[in-house]
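As noted in the main text, all predictions were made from sequence alone. Below is one such record, for ABC transporter permease.
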Amino acid sequence: MSDLSVISVPGQGAAPLAHSARPVPRPASRRGGHPGRLAFRALPWLAPLAGLLLWQLAAQFALVSGHILPAPSRVLATLLELSRSGELWSAIRISLWRLAVGLMIGAPLGFLFGLLLGASPRAEDWLGPSFRAIAAVPALGWIPVLILLVGIDEALKVIILIKACFVPVAIAGRDAWRAVPARYAELGRVLGLSPGRQLWRIHLPAMVPTLFSGLRLASGQAFVSLVTCEMLAATDGLGYLMVWGRTLFQMDMVIVGMIAVGAAGIALDRLLRGGERALRARMGDDG
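Prediction:
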């Protein structure tokens, strides 16, 4: 059968139109198995794998004492043992609960305070200097004073976490409000939107990226502060687990605690990124 089809062109009679009867092959990059793309996706894993290899070689050839740097196989065995006994999961649960309490209290307070500073120049004049002075002192710098005031119980950790969450979110809220173009607010007034609707429909969608950047920063700082507090003044949690391992000269337990802290931090960051995408999609649907 011929590969030529005939179509009729008005005023010109019939004209041949050539086409191929065979399907046109797709480029290799569109079929999903392109070697370059697979290599690019593997790049983030090169550094961890190289570090793991060096770690194994150092332990295998006794370049470092096993009491200081245990072999990866020993760390894995300790990880499995602590997981089966429930000790690791208990420490993770306690630390994440404390972090959640700090975020649930410190982040909303920081957001509202940031909105106040951003929306009111008078509030910035009155409260801004004191806020900047408090923010200049790291959360961990308050530990000696707070130990004298509230002791070493849960109140100490909660207050430290609230402060660690409050400051970054307040700064992000203030800067995000000020970054919204003035014409957006003018548009809301022209459309007759109430102040609440203006906040939800106009300001918040524009503020979401900056707010969540501040929230991710706050969660990271709070987690660091929490682990340090648990190392200094706690009898449970991931920080205490690492201190207990150091006391027993079991560096494998310390490394397991470090791995758990890193994994929890990555999971929390992924969770916040997913929350940001969901919130932006929800606001877009409502708009």
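The first helix runs from residue 35 to 60. The chain has one domain: 72-278. These features were considered when defining construct boundaries for the mutagenesis experiments described in Section 2.9.
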